[in-house]
Design brief:
Strand content: 5-15%
CATH class of the largest domain: Alpha Beta
Largest sheet: 4 strands, mixed
Distance between the termini: 171 Å
Order of helices and strands: HHHEHEEEH
Radius of gyration: 64 Å
Number of domains: 2
Length: 247
């Protein structure tokens, strides 16, 4: 077998030409296409990364806003709950105070009603006592309505201080003697003697008849009355009963 150098050289030239043609018409465009594809891919990856980053940021912002809104809602709900609790406590406290006040008023009204009823019974008993006293004295001798009262009048006048007795003694013409019936001369003299024992300068007083006294002798003046009668004593007893023994 013989080696043909011309054939070999011709084939080498063909290979060189083929490599040049492939390099010029195929490798370079393909390389350019691959480079362009790589650039496009890089840009797409960068754009996707940016989009992903923006999406993450948007998601984080949305999550933060949601958490913020949730926190605000919780704050609003807690504030509303506290306000409702405060209103409930205020309503309960007002209701408790109102109940206490209602109970206190009810007790006070009941106590007042009981006291008024008790006083009414006492007044009724006192009125009955006066009626009974009148009827009893109506069956007694007439002198029983005056007897003993001149001395009581004298004692009442003697219990006054000196200034009061001097003022009474100076009331010339103003002193009047009140009796349950017209006085006999002896009764009038006994009454005058009792008055002058305490008021030596006092004139003999005029007599006024007042059967509401039931029994007794009372001395009146411009400054007041020296009480000395059964009617006054019954009134004192009634007052003592109404005030639980305090006169």
């Amino acid at each position: 077998m013989q080696f043909d150098w011309w054939t070999f050289a011709f084939q080498v030239v063909n290979v060189v030409i083929l490599i040049w043609l492939l390099s010029h018409f195929m490798f370079r465009p393909v390389a350019k296409i691959i480079a362009d594809r790589r650039a496009d891919t890089s840009r797409a990856l960068e754009a996707a990364e940016v989009a992903k980053r923006k999406a993450d940021e948007a998601e984080a912002a949305a999550r933060a806003e949601k958490e913020k809104n949730a926190a605000e809602r919780l704050t609003i709900i807690e504030a509303a709950r506290e306000e409702a609790e405060g209103q409930k406590n205020a309503i309960l406290e007002d209701a408790r105070k109102e109940a206490v006040e209602t109970l206190r008023k009810a007790k006070a009204d009941a106590a007042q009603a009981a006291e008024e009823e008790r006083k009414a019974r006492v007044r009724k008993a006192a009125d009955l006592a006066v009626v009974i006293a009148r009827r009893l004295l109506g069956n007694l001798p007439e002198d029983g309505r005056i007897a003993g009262y001149p001395k009581r009048l004298q004692a009442a006048l003697a219990s006054l201080d000196a200034e009061q007795r001097e003022a009474l003694g100076a009331e010339t013409g103003a002193l009047r003697l009140r009796a349950p019936r017209p006085l006999t001369k002896a009764e009038l003299a006994a009454a005058g003697k009792a008055i002058r024992a305490a008021l030596p300068e006092a004139p003999e007083p005029e007599v006024d008849v007042d059967d509401t006294l039931i029994a007794g002798l009372e001395l009146t003046s411009r400054h007041g009355v020296i009480h000395n009668s059964l009617n006054y004593d019954l009134g004192r007893i009634t007052e003592a009963l109404e005030n639980d023994g305090e006169v």
